[in-house]
Write a structure and sequence with these properties.
Length: 161
């Protein structure tokens, strides 16, 4: 390979990595804003989503209707996602990424302030020129009431309605 091809390859890889970072940031902003219609467009039709004790969902409509429009809408009156420490690998039209998440959320019942920490494990697929979420798995490290903290109650499980 010559230097121009090496530089071109590197630029494409960096552009893909940045696009994936932007996709994850957009996901977080849309969840926080409860903009379910815009969030719907980020997923592959046959995507999978595993949110641990909140459930596992297969297919974009199940993810959006069963998890976000139902569970998240009913259980959370406030969400603030902060993702950091991305590790991204791109292999052609497929990619994987992991991010640490620190989040503040308010859960029902009782309008309870919750701290969340964990790791997103994501798979992506390029569709034409756009990246989409193919699978999302969230590994909880703690989900704890603010007044109790992760040392005392690392995995509080909200009652399911």
């Amino acid at each position: 390979m010559n230097d121009q091809n090496d530089i071109r390859t590197l630029l494409h890889k960096l552009a893909d990595i940045e696009a994936l970072k932007q996709l994850k940031a957009r996901y977080c902003h849309l969840v926080d804003a409860a903009d379910w219609d815009a969030l719907d467009a980020l997923w592959m039709e046959d995507a999978t989503c595993d949110y641990g004790f909140f459930g596992r969902f297969q297919g974009r409509s199940s993810i959006m209707d069963g998890f976000f429009r139902k569970q998240v809408s009913e259980a959370s009156s406030f969400n603030a996602h902060m993702v950091h420490n991305p590790l991204i690998e791109v292999h052609g039209d497929r990619a994987s990424g992991s991010w640490y998440l620190t989040a503040h959320t308010t859960q029902q019942p009782g309008n309870r302030a919750i701290w969340v920490m964990g790791i997103y494990h994501d798979e992506f697929q390029r569709v034409e020129t756009e990246w989409k979420i193919a699978s999302l798995r969230f590994e909880f490290k703690y989900f704890t009431p603010f007044d109790e903290g992760w040392a005392r109650t690392p995995m509080w499980q909200p009652p399911h309605g």
